Amino acid sequence: MIEPAPRVVALGGGHGLASSLRAARGFAGELVGVVSVADDGGSSGRLRRELGLPAPGDLRRCLSALASDDSLLARSLEHRFDKGPLEGHPVGNLLIAGLASASGDFAGAISEVARLIGAAGTIHPATVDPVTLVADSDEGRLAGQVTIERATGIRNLRFEQRSPNTPREAVQSILDADLVVVGPGSLFTSVLAAAVVPEIKSALLHTKAKRVFVANIANDRAEARGFDLPEHVEALSQHGVGLDAVIAPPGTYRVDDVQRVAPGVIVRTADVAGGDGWEHDPDKLGAVLEAVFGELTDDAFAEPANGRS
Question: Please, what sign has the CA dihedral across residues 35, 38, 42, 48?
Answer without folding.
Answer: positive
